[in-house]
């Protein structure tokens, strides 16, 4: 297995930390509190006051210091206690709380639990053109593997998003090919043409090509291209909060210049809200069903078909194994 603790993970949108309130987050089972210090830098500490273990995220930020809600001890971004109300505090310079590397990148707040020399930078969206974008965020009870597969799997859309993305009775023969990336895997589809789903008919004309890609540690991205270049790029960063619970930050980007950005945000937020809810529902139903059978002692492996273009490779990437599918592997299918 790859060690997810050695990667940067996004825990919040930058705008969520703007108001001076601390934010409670969990990363790989570790409860954290995020806040901004007096210089505006983002900071991440264990969400546990060393005094009586109250959650610091229930407190407030005062002059860039985090104040515990119980007795008001105050902490700096490096975890040092800087005030104990009711007594004069001797400065020790020794942190009482663990602090973690924290930074803003690509509009999100990122934390790494165990940085090392080989830690890759926060994963950026694959955008070359000028785009309008906005963020959507949610939590889902499922694994990283399940969410990444779901997001990149075109063959559930005819059922889970019937009419919204595709229709089962309006399939098209397409050519799909799978390509290795430096840190992941990509599926490319060609021959799709005009789409039957509502979202596509609003956003696209003829589709020239589309891509679904997964990159470590947990970025799932779909890209639709038309005659004039990029039509839609949705980048979903999947952050494992704990066993079976994910936080998702989705960045929805469209080519700028066609419609005003606020108008696109207004209707795309609603449309993608529906899609996210539909995916969340099927993912949580699936997780619940897996748990029922596990409890009954009837756990079983999932069964892959040839249409699971990326799922087995995502499993191998997360396990730190070599990909078995060949670079450039191609098939015809009905999407
Ligand atoms: S528990 Fe935090 S100050 Fe007492
Ligand atoms: Fe979906």
UniProtKB/TrEMBL annotation:
What CDD domains does this protein map onto?
Rieske_RO_Alpha_N
UniProt-listed InterPro entries: Cholesterol_7-desaturase, Rieske_2Fe-2S, Rieske_2Fe-2S_sf, VanA_C_cat
Tell me, what is one Gene Ontology molecular-function annotation carried by this entry? Answer: dioxygenase activity
Q: Where is the Rieske domain?
A: 8-111
Enzyme class, UniProt record, top EC level = oxidoreductase
Q: Does the keyword Oxidoreductase apply?
A: yes
The EC code for this enzyme is 1.14.13.-
Q: Which UniProt keywords apply?
A: 2Fe-2S, Dioxygenase, Iron, Iron-sulfur, Metal-binding, Oxidoreductase
Q: Which protein is depicted?
A: Aromatic ring-hydroxylating dioxygenase subunit alpha
